[in-house]
Amino acid sequence: MNKLKTTVKKAGVFVAAAALIAGGGGTMYILLSGETFAQTGVQVVQQPKRDVLPETKAAATEVKAEYTVIDQSAAYTTDKLKETLTAKGAPTAELESRAAELQSTYVPGEKDITAEQAAAYGAGLLKKTFAADLNGYTARAGFLKGSVPGTDTWSVTFEPAGPSGGAAAEASGAKSYSVYLNSVNGKIINASSSYDRNAVKNADLNDPAWKEKAKQAVTALLPTNVTITSVKITAADGVDKIGVPVLCELSDGSAYMAGLAGDNKEIVNLYYFQTGYDGSLDRTINKQKQM
Q1: How far apart are the C-alpha atoms of 237 and 99, rounded to whole Å?
Q2: 70: closest CA among 172, 185, 169, 155?
Q3: CA 13 to CA 200: how far, in whole Å?
Q4: Which residue in 23, 24, 196, 266 has the most C-beta neighbors within 10 A?
Q5: What CA–CA distances, in Å, run from 132 to 10, 27, 93, 122, 266?
Q6: Residue 280: helix, strand or coil by DSSP?
Q7: Alpha helices in 94-187 (DSSP H)
Q8: In a 3-state reduction of DSSP, which class is residue 99?
Q9: CA 287 to CA 4: how far, in whole Å?
Q10: Which residues of the chain have pLDDT under 50?
Q11: Which residues of 77-96 are buried (b: 16+ CB within 10 A; e: fewer)?
């Protein structure tokens, strides 16, 4: 898989990587919210180091009518964190402070929506825009505190059911999905589905159906007082990374970038830019091509 990496230093905890893996179900995606990305030059999505975190078996599970929600933040109890830190050789005098710091990073606060609410927001978007059928899926929700105010997020990965797990189900044709959203208001920042990269090779970018399909998908998400003002294909040389990219600019100054793939021109990636598209997705794709 192709990964778009940005490293960010977080004091006293970890150095972690942000990644965009187009079509990689069950993976982490870079957040491309125009408001934060354009202002800071960095968008923080941290993948915790596996050797310092508790097992997710302790995570709370709630069964929904369609899908099962696993709140992975529930694994970060004080006792479990201390136990894990001790096993990794952390000084006894630092256990309390380091456990508290980890909890503040990976456990939501009172202002944040719950894992179940985050999954519900994500499921709603996936049904509207991706035409997703999530019956029998498992939704794994992880909270992450951002490095700057207003960037705290939930990431929710919807994995298909299968006799040998999600990977087997996906191999048989079922899709996996990932959604990133603001942890306070539930605003979707990025949503993606797994897809066949070959489905966008030699795509006819002059086909007006790409724009029409993207417009239909984005329109389904808009409030009644917001309209699409322009639709255009951009970052055309990055179709193998996100699908055929179609930029939909909105009357309120914000924008969506939709990536589409396949004969039916299905949406496989969706990015929201609160203050309008800032070119960050194009730059990230170009940087990856040079690596």
Answers
A1: 45
A2: 155
A3: 40
A4: 23
A5: 35, 18, 49, 11, 11
A6: helix
A7: 95-106, 115-129, 166-171
A8: helix
A9: 8
A10: 1-53, 56-58, 288-291
A11: eeebbbebbeeeebeeeebe
What the block records as the tokens of 165 is: 């797990």
Instruction: Name the residue type at position 246.
Output: V
Tokens of 116: 């179940």
Q: In the prediction, which pLDDT does 174 show?
A: 85
What is the enclosing helix (H) or strand (E) of 138?
strand 138-144
Edge to edge, the sheet with strand 244-250 lists 60-63, 68-71, 138-144, 153-159, 177-182, 188-193, 266-273, 255-261, 244-250, 228-233
pLDDT of residue 127: 93
Closest CA to 37 of 272, 287, 218: 272
Determine phi and psi for 161, rounding to 5 degrees.
-80, 145
Nearest-10 crossing angle of helices 95-106, 78-87: 120
Give the residue from 146, 268, 260, 149 showing the smallest Cα distance to 210.
Answer: 260
Q: CA-to-CA distance for 118 and 102, rounded, in angstroms? A: 21
pLDDT in the model for residue 205: 84
Based on its alpha-carbon atoms, the radius of gyration of the chain, rounded to whole angstroms, reads 19
Tokens of 218: 């984005």
Beta bridge partners of 179: 156, 191
Q: Residue 259 corresponds to which tokens in the numbers above? A: 């990536």
Q: Which residues pair with 142 in a beta bridge?
A: 155
Q: What are phi and psi of 105, to 5 degrees?
A: -85, -35
The pair phi, psi for residue 249, each rounded to 5°, is: -90, 140
Residues β-bridged to residue 261:
266
pLDDT tens digits for range 73-85:
998 998 888 888 8
Residues with Cβ within 8 Å of residue 279, at least 6 apart in sequence: none
Phi, psi of 197 (to 5 degrees): -60, -30
How far is the C-alpha of 27 from the C-alpha of 35, rounded, in Å?
23
CA distance 19 to 40: 17
> Would you state the structure tokens that stand for residue 180, as one six-digit string?
């990133």
